[in-house]
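Figure 2 data, in text form.
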Amino acid sequence: MLEAAVRSELGLEQLGSDAQKSLGIQNLSGNVTISGVLLSDQNSYPGIDLVSMDNEDIFGERLLTADKSLLTQLDQAMEFFRRYYCRDMVTGSLERKKVYLVPEQAFRESIVNALVHRQWDILADILVKMYPDRMQVN
C-alpha cells in the first residue's frame, strides 16, 4: 500500500533505501523507525474502532482496523463512512445524485487528525461513533 502511494503521489518508481530514509521510515543505520512500523501492515498498534449508531444506545455495523498500516486504516474508515453516510437522492429529472449526511472532507480530516495526534504509548483504539446527524471521535 505504501509503495503504491509513493509511486502515485511522489512519482518514485520504487521505495528504495534512500527514499525510505528521506521519508523517515528508515533511520541512517538502516533500521525501521516507528513511522515505518506504523506504515507497515505488520504492526501490533491499535487501530480505529468505527461504529454506526442507530441512536444513543443501539449500534448497527462495526469495523475494527487494528494491526494494519495507517494508510489502510484510513482507506477502510473512508469506505465505512461512504457506506453509512452516503445516500442517493433523486433529483427533479429522476437522476440519482450521491449526498453525504456529513461532509466527506470533514470526516477524513477528523480521522487523519485522530491518527496523527494520538498517543501511541497508550494502547487503545480510536473510537468513532457515527450517528445519523453527527459523529464523535475519541
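Caption note: The chain has five helices and six strands.
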